[in-house]
Amino acid sequence: PPSKQGKKSSFVDRNSDEYRQRRERNNMAVKKSRLKSKQKAQDTLQRVNQLKEENERLEAKIKLLTKELSVLKDLFLEHAHNFADNVQPVGTESTTTNPENSGQ
C-alpha cells in the first residue's frame, strides 16, 4: 500500500526552499513538544514533592493528636475512677454523713 507521501513525487530536493521551510517548522514543533514534555515532568515532580511534604506534616499532626487523645483518655478515666470512689450508690446513704438527718 502506498504511503501518504506516495502520491507526491518520490524525489525530494533537500536544497529546495519548501523542504527547508518544512524541516524548520518541524524542528520548531519538535523543540516545542520536547520543552512542553520537560515542563510537564518538572511540574509533576514539583507536585510530588509538595504532596510528600504535606503528607509528612499530616503524619506528624496525626501523631501529635493521637498522643493528645491518649492523655485525655487517661485523664478522663482517672477522673471517672476518682468520681466513682467518692459517690455512694443510691439507698446506702449513711445517716451520720447526711446533714439533713443530723438533727434527728
TrEMBL record:
Q: Which family does it belong to?
A: Belongs to the bZIP family. C/EBP subfamily.
Keywords for the protein's UniProt record, in alphabetical order:
Activator, DNA-binding, Isopeptide bond, Nucleus, Transcription, Transcription regulation, Ubl conjugation
| Polar residues bias locations | 89-104
Annotated Gene Ontology cellular component terms: nucleus
All copies of the BZIP domain together span 16-79
Q: Name one GO biological process term.
A: DNA-templated transcription
Q: Which GO terms describe its molecular function?
A: DNA-binding transcription factor activity, RNA polymerase II-specific; RNA polymerase II cis-regulatory region sequence-specific DNA binding
This protein is called what?
Answer: CCAAT/enhancer-binding protein gamma
Major location, coarse class? nucleus
Subcellular location as annotated: Nucleus
Q: Which gene encodes it?
A: Cebpg
Q: Where is the composition biased (Basic and acidic residues)?
A: 10-26
Positions of the region Disordered?
Answer: 1-48, 83-104
> SUPFAM superfamilies, per this entry?
Leucine zipper domain
Question: Which one Pfam family would you cite for this protein?
Answer: bZIP_2
Is Transcription one of the keywords UniProt gives this record?
Answer: yes
